[in-house]
Amino acid sequence: MDFTISDQMQATLTLIDEFMHNEVFPFEADFFHHSFKDLLPELQKKRARVKQMGLWGPNYPAELGGMGLGLLEHGLISESLGRSPLGHYIFGTQAPDAGNIEILHMFGTPEQKEQYLKPLVNGDIRSCFAMTEVNTAGSNPLLMEGTAVKEGHDYILNGHKWYTTGADGASFAIAMMVTNPDAHPSLRCSMIIVPCDNPGFNLAGNISIMGEKGSDYNSHGEVLFQSCRVPQSNLLGKEGHGFRLAQERLGPGRIHHCMRWLGICQRSLDLMCERANQRVIELDGTTLAGKEIVQHWVAESAAEIEAARLMTLSAAWSIDNLGMRKSRDKVAMIKFVVANTMQRVIDRALQVHGGLGMSDDTILAYFYRHERAARIYDGADEVHKASLGKHVLRSAKKVARQSV
Ligand SMILES: Cc1cc2nc3c(=O)[nH]c(=O)nc-3n(C[C@H](O)[C@H](O)[C@H](O)COP(=O)(O)OP(=O)(O)OC[C@H]3O[C@@H](n4cnc5c(N)ncnc54)[C@H](O)[C@@H]3O)c2cc1C
Questions:
Q1: Residue 227: inside a domain, yes or no?
Q2: In terms of domains, do 315 and 387 share one?
Q3: DSSP classification of residue 168
Q4: Does the beta carbon of 253 sit less than 6 angstroms from any atom of ligand 1?
Q5: What is the DSSP track for 189-237?
Q6: Is the CB of 377 under 6 A from ligand 1?
Q7: End residue of a domain, out of 215, 236, 257
Q8: Is 402's pLDDT higher than 90?
Q9: Ligand 1 pocket member 163 (CB < 6 A)
Q10: Which of 18, 77, 267, 369 could connect to 83 by a Cys-Cys bridge, CB 3.0–4.6 Å?
């Protein structure tokens, strides 16, 4: 396994680092005091600068207008961008568009690519991904109830989805619906493209999450598909292959998430150290950094971040070099390890900041509110642990049998 960074890659990382410090971190104050929607014109200008610098869409293939980097290299960039909630958006690599782009690139028809993929990669439009339902457990998508029924040349979609990230302001959704109710449970669902201005696509509103409804990209919508008619040509891939397509976006998507979370960890640790070094806590001038418990928090955080980073890079290397099938255990491991590392590091950093940590004068409270969800979306901790545990136990049984 080789994590060596080329000189060219190091130069790119330095450039991105400078951009984050000079253009993105200072802009966060505006982000706290305005809605995302209001910031769009300024965000567009920043996106234009990123494009001029040749840094747009690090993970997208060069033929689509991206930088064409492998998973390992994109992972490193993703960590750098993840230090701010605005980083991925400004560089055009935000979820769920990144995953939708991968699916469209791999499975889209030439017409779908022309109409949806091109403007999406270019950042002219946004998309969303509507799978989770209000009334069925998202942890087991085999229970899904939303339907797409054929009528003439069309599908008629009906379903009640929520947590459709970025539905507000999106141009189209990729909806996961039951198309083949009588098939094997893993072959019942399909992905279908639905333009959001379709009269049967109704955004009931943005869900209030930890006191915030958000807007535009920075929101999670509740969506009603009500007799929503789309042509059958909007099917993505083969009918009944929805879960197979979802598997394709799983590996790269997981690396993007985990490296973004590591960026959040690193920024929180940096802030923790800065505050601990400055904050005088005794009459003799001792700072928080002089307290053993704070030293332990800093040490534990640094070590946990390093371990989580190496695990994630190892999973990225494995997908790049051995393929997704052979990397499944690693991909499941990083999900819960990195999400929990992040939660601990943010919590320690917030504690060191005291009252300041609870205020919106630093980014920590934002991270604390928004990143708790990391242990739930993209598969809850318990689901990943159960599937990894079963797989490790099965492998152990095989080894035991072979050695008898
Ligand atoms: C911020 C955020 C963004 C999201 N974005 C999207 C999006 O863009 N598109 C989309 O379709 N969905 C999205 N989701 C939805 C997300 O994928 C689901 O919330 C997730 O799959 C869990 O489903 P659920 O909420 O129905 O919880 P449930 O399935 O009801 O599970 C509840 C809890 O039960 C426990 N649990 C579940 N299964 C097991 C098990 N086998 N063993 C033990 N315990 C278990 C877990 O602790 C879990 O948290 C998002 C969610 C959040 C919070």
A1: yes
A2: yes
A3: T
A4: no
A5: EEEEEEETTSTTEEEEEEPPBTTB--BTTB-EEEEEEEEEEEEGGGEES
A6: yes
A7: 236
A8: no
A9: yes
A10: 267
